[in-house]
Design brief:
InterPro entries: Methyltransf_25 (IPR041698), SAM-dependent_MTases_sf (IPR029063). The protein is of the alpha/beta class. It has helices at residues 3-19, 71-88, 97-102, 115-123, 182-192, 214-229, 236-247, 266-281, 283-289, 291-294, 298-313, and strands at 28-32, 37-41, 49-52, 55-58, 105-109, 128-133, 147-151, 165-171, 193-204, 250-260, 316-325. The strands form three sheets. Strands 7-6-5-8-9-11-10 form a seven-stranded mixed beta sheet, sandwiched between helices. Strands 1-2 form a two-stranded antiparallel sheet. Strands 3-4 form a two-stranded antiparallel sheet. Helix 1 runs antiparallel to helix 2 (71-88), helix 2 runs antiparallel to helix 8 (266-281) and helix 5 (182-192) crosses helix 7. The termini are far apart. Bound molecules: S-adenosylmethionine.
Length: 330
Amino acid sequence: MSFFNFFRVLNRKARRSLSGRVKQQSRMSSVSSSSQDVSFTSSTSSSKYRYDGGRRYHGDEKVAYLLPNDNEEDDRMHQQHWLVALAFGSHFDSPVQAELEAGTNVLDSACGPATWAMQMAKAYPNSKVYGTDISERFPDSIKPSNCEFLVHNIVENPPFPNDYFGFIHQRFLLLGIAKKDWPQILAHHLRTLKPGGWIELTELSYAKLVNAGPKAQLTFDTAITVMNKGGMDIDLANNLEPMLKDAGFVNVQTRSFDMPMNHGGKVGELFWDDFQQGYHSARPIWAKIHPDIAAPGTFEKYIEETGEECKQYQTCVPFTRAFAQKPPLA
Ligand SMILES: C[S@@+](CC[C@H](N)C(=O)[O-])C[C@H]1O[C@@H](n2cnc3c(N)ncnc32)[C@H](O)[C@@H]1O
């Protein structure tokens, strides 16, 4: 069984164990770490859901996130994890390998179903990996023993001490965070990172597609309409560097990759598969903006034609990894 399928099975088992239990408004979790013993309290309720077009969403009005948090979306997240690893050729760019091997505290902020967090926990058994997310979509029992998860809204102050993490990882919040909230989130990360610790953010841009045909452009314009309403940054990938500098991080570096849609071999194939699933996750949005296209039968045809168009135009979506350091002590 591939590693990807192994985690799909684990995650399904974990979800089954979750669904049979009454979830608490907030959960206390006692944590032992290599550096200190700390107690953390999950800060946000996970029990609020809303349903639209047969999909389940986070129901908290304070949370801007646009995509579902159901099993189908979790499967898409797992696959996207492997797509990104294949495209970038690694799970991270920050120079933290030696520290991870020796043992440090790692945060996967907005970890989703936690594929990255569990992969890192397994690869670096001396390190302790924490995952936080607004939805309790991570496994609570079937997981590496050096992995801990908490329900938390990352806009709010996280329940971690100052200077706690050696490495903070966060990705794909383009459709989740309003532009005005980014400085606050980065201030929390700066506070909880150790001096000299590294932060790494991966995002994509909806603002500047490469070689877009009319159907792909309409797809991104539809997303942009909703993102503008939520005050989100449609060019987030290209704004990571200035945002990190403004927040007080140093040694800011970036690496970009134009992700091919439905061309260019395995990466293009996987990304198109991810994108098609994304279409279905976003169908309730389409139903509001373009009800004609979202109609059953028409929507599937539209997706198929967009795939062909992307192949013909060689369309790509720009992704960027940005990594930076909390200023080391003098
Ligand atoms: C696109 S998913 C990416 C998940 C994960 N980072 C990955 O790469 O697989 C975005 C995640 O951010 C979470 N999220 C959105 N807004 C959030 C918030 N304000 N606080 C915490 N998590 C949030 C969502 O629940 C979702 O799991």
